[in-house]
Amino acid sequence: MSDSTPLLAISPVDGRYRRHTAPLAPYFSEAGLIQYRVRVEVEYLIALHAAGLSQLPALTEAQVEGLRRVYVDFGSADAQAVKDIEKTTNHDVKAVEYFIKDKLAPIGLEDRAEFVHFGLTSQDVNNTAIPLSMAEATADVLLPALQAVRDDLAGLAEQWKDVPMLARTHGQPASPVTLGKEFAVFVERLDHAVAQFEAVPFAAKFGGATGGFNAHHVAYPDTDWHAFADRFVSEELGLHRSHPTTQIEHYDYLAAWCHALQRIHTILIDLDRDIWHYISLDYFKQKVVEGEVGSSAMPHKVNPIDFENSEGNLGVANALLGHFASKLPISRLQRDLTDSTVLRNVGVPVGHSLIALNALRKGLGKLLLNEARLQADLEAQWAVVAEAIQTVLRREGVEKPYELLKALTRGKAGIDAASIAEFIAGLPVSDAIKAELSAITPHNYLGTTGA
Q: What is the pLDDT of residue 173?
């Protein structure tokens, strides 16, 4: 059996669920991280040439193109070449530096080799490469997946906007709603949470060994290195530059990104659990997949496995995101290596998120509305119109209407259309008001969503 088979993967993110997480590999795999490091180093070298340093003549368009091809054409063989260099250096970023230096001769830039990684520390590369990979993975993969779930929910909210449903507060029958409104609630929550998520900047550190451009300044004291870094990080990489810093990025924005994604996941866990309950109430049937087994012992079972899968993976993602958010902003003095090993896992919660989003969409696509069951539940709970009746009676000045309806309905069995009609008939109000009250049923007492 090949060592690369998903069957031998330790984590289900790269094993059982690889078909879901494969789109994240270019961003969060080790090969992907190496490519982002190469990209940062190459773009930095190009930016140095544009800074007007006396030892660096301007690059030709062909040379710029040749340099960028180093990371644009980067493939698995290149990633392995970097790993082979690392066997000697025992340092991943230094291996990237040597790899790039080996690529300069064909471009005619071998004399510029010592300006590769000039004045930098590893974290100037890591703390730009990683947020860049996160920014692009978020934009290219995660946000479209979230948008797809949101659109599915919005479609169901519209489809079921006129379907009445018994609400439950504290698990007990409550004033009816429409099924579509309940789905619209999650659309609205997601819209706000995703907007907050998108608003979090992707921050980068770029400032030398301890944040003060010491090496750069001693070599070129007349260059404004902070202005250079601001331009490079924002214009070339599209990131927000943190300044001043220690050797590493503060990670405060990364923590905010984790917290914002946690809130999105928490909303979706709430959705998963609500739908799970609706299925258990028989409000939804599920499309049967040919050949699929629901239980190894009970042949009849059609379990809500997609929503359970989604909930479980969202929980794992949130546990990791919580650790990142609480750990990464803390470092011993100017730097320790605990952030390095943690950041290597940043793609894992995103992988669990993607697995969960795909499972949720699959589950939503299998829902079959059992409207007869919703109608039966409403018909069995005529007591829920008590709120409506007592409120109209308040309007009409009837004395203690709440207490009247409480005595009629609270904790009582057998409240049906007939018992409500009998109660209305005995009220000290006009026939017009009695007609108004008699028109209220559990099926039409739905309020308004304001839409």
A: 95
Please report, in angstroms and rounded to a whole number, the separation of the first and last CA atoms in the chain. Answer: 58
Q: Out of 1.10.340.30, 1.10.275.10, 3.40.50.720, 1.10.10.10, select the CATH number for domain 18-118.
A: 1.10.275.10
Which residue's structure tokens are 């690392």? 86
pLDDT in tens, 151-165: 999 999 999 999 999
Q: Is 387 exposed, middle or buried (0-12, 13-18, 19+ CB in 10 A)?
A: middle
Query: Of the CATH numbers 1.10.10.10, 1.20.200.10, 3.40.50.2000, 3.40.50.2300, which one belongs to the domain with range 123-370?
Result: 1.20.200.10
Q: Where are the beta strands (DSSP E) in 322-428?
A: 367-369
Alpha-carbon Rg of the chain, whole angstroms? 31
Dump the DSSP string for 236-276.
IS--EEP-S-SSS---HHHHHHHHHHHHHHHHHHHHHHHHH
Determine the residue type at 426.
Answer: G
Mean pLDDT of 317-324: 98
Q: How far does Cα 299 stand from its chain's mean position?
A: 36
* pTM exceeding the 0.90 threshold for the entire prediction: yes
Confidence (pLDDT) at 295: 59
Known catalytic residues are 170, 295
Give 210's contacts (C-beta < 8 A, 6+ positions apart).
246, 247, 334
The CB-side HSE value for 214 (13 A sphere, CA atoms) comes to 7
